Amino acid sequence: MARSVKKFYTGKVKTEWNRLIQDAYHKLELDTTLYFLKKYLPKKGLILDAGGGPGRYTIDLAKQGYDIILLDLTPANLEFAKKQIKKAKVQNKIKGVIEGSITDLSKFPNNTFDAVICLGGPLSHVLDKKKRDKAIFELIRVAKKGAPVAVSVIGRLAVLARAVKIFPEEIGLPHFKKYRDTGDYPGQFGFTASHFFLPEELKNLFAKKKVKILAMAGLEGIGSNLQEKVNQLAKNKKRWSAWLETHYKFCTHPAIIGISKHQLIICKKL
């Protein structure tokens, strides 16, 4: 699994770097995540960006004054991130750029970080159920008592809806039935190996740990899988402002979390 994911993202570094800013629709994931991070992160401190890819959140949070350690599975992501960190002139806030997996954070002692983030779906790329649970344990373990832990994953219902829209010919094939019924996607059909989450599944995984769940949100919200329409709406400032107000009003609704392409959970370590 790790080799497959690493190979996939090695060839997608620039794509992943640009993914969250390519248009208004994708920027909803970035902006909604940052909205909730602003609400729950401490005012200052050391943050672990686990599975942080080419460093989009690392650099944004460094600009806000946080100290950051970036960890990712893919060396190509980390090399690209180093260049972007230098370009953004935030080298003094970056305390490490480290190759590693979210399933094994043993290089960090217990209670190291003032906050831990794992955003964009790294947990979705851990197919083994026991390793997913281990990853969550590790993300919580390295956080200080009282620290927030923020994780976003890829939502199963949004993937099913996308199949209707984009890949109807795949509906009914064995791999479709597999991710429909279990959430597990083998990775041979245009995307890397992934586990797609139902919101109750994500919630239950964290509820069993020593944390208090602070918030859950659907990052694309009501507009999930409506990329073309959302981007058209963004061209009209008045309508876009009203839509963003609507988006934030309902993005924490259980139904909206369920249909969103990316689902965010934020917890506090007890």
Determine the structural class based on helices, strands and strand pairing: alpha/beta
Strand content: 15-25%
Helical residue percent?
40-55%
Under CATH, the topology is which?
A: Rossmann fold
Number of strands: 9
SSE pattern: HHHEHEHEEHEHHEEHEHHHE
Rg (CA only)? 18 Å
Give the end-to-end Cα distance, rounded to a whole number of Å: 32 Å
Q: Estimate the mean pLDDT confidence.
A: 96
Protein name: Methyltransferase domain-containing protein
Domain Methyltransferase: 47-146
Overview of this protein structure:
The mean pLDDT is 96. The chain has one domain: Rossmann fold. Helix 4 links the parallel strand 1 and strand 2 (67-72). The strands form 2 sheets. It has a 7-stranded mixed β-sheet, sandwiched between helices. A two-stranded antiparallel ribbon has the order 6-7. The chain has 270 residues and is an alpha/beta fold. The protein contains 12 helices and 9 strands. It is globular.
Provide a compact summary of the structure:
The chain has helices at 2-10, 13-19, 24-40, 56-63, 75-88, 129-141, 156-166, 174-182, 199-207, 227-233, 237-250, 254-259; strands at 46-50, 67-72, 94-99, 115-118, 148-154, 184-185, 194-195, 211-218, 262-269.
